Amino acid sequence: MRVEMELDEIIFGSTRDIEVNTAILCETCNGSCCAPGTSPATCDICRGSGQIQRAVRSLLGNVMTSSPCGTCRGYGTVIPHPCPTCQGQGRVRAARTISVDIPAGVDTGLRLQMPSQGEVGPAGGPQGDLYLEIKVRHHDTFSRNGDDLLATLEIQMTDAILGTTATLKTLDGEVVLDIKPGIQSAEVLTVKDRGITRLRGGGRGDLKIGVQVVTPTKLNHKEQNLIKELAKSQRAVSPHLSHFQQGLFAKLRDRFMNV
Prior knowledge:
By secondary structure, the chain is mainly beta. It is built from 4 helices and 17 strands.
């Protein structure tokens, strides 16, 4: 079965109640396949051996071969009075609810094995296993890289110049982030131990936040004059060609991987 989870659920793990439609033991016959008060009878064809022997002629003479009995299908017994509930199968289909503890740190594609939670075998045979395949839903803000969480923080040009303090809502509470004056686009700020709990081993990954400085597109006359005054005081260098640089998202990707 596939189990879909939210990104915030896998930080610390969660418990899910899963409804499974599967084969369970027939309560009427308790897996014997017989109607109440009756029992299996010895097969008249194979006399309880479950095998039929035949003599086959060959170049070497008569050769004895054996094959499963077609009447009892190799069981050696037949059911003269099948159970009316399961029609002689020893099991019926029903929905049941299973409580599943999903550990922290799981990722899409991971399989969890639950022993003896699968279907009951025919004629009351042993119960199989249940396999759960995890799928983590897409999140609009955060993405995952191993045990780290990644996000992009958009800040105004003035905040990038002067610096500021931002209170950010993460998947498990708020984080106060100090943004230093003069920060540039594609810089990565790391918040330790606010990522995904490691699946094997203690501790958590980090929250890595890539910065994107937003340039205002609509300025009034007063704001334009202030920017012009700033440009004059900074003695800005005129636009010029330089060596080719990667785009913002490629730079962020490389920095995320190397931080």
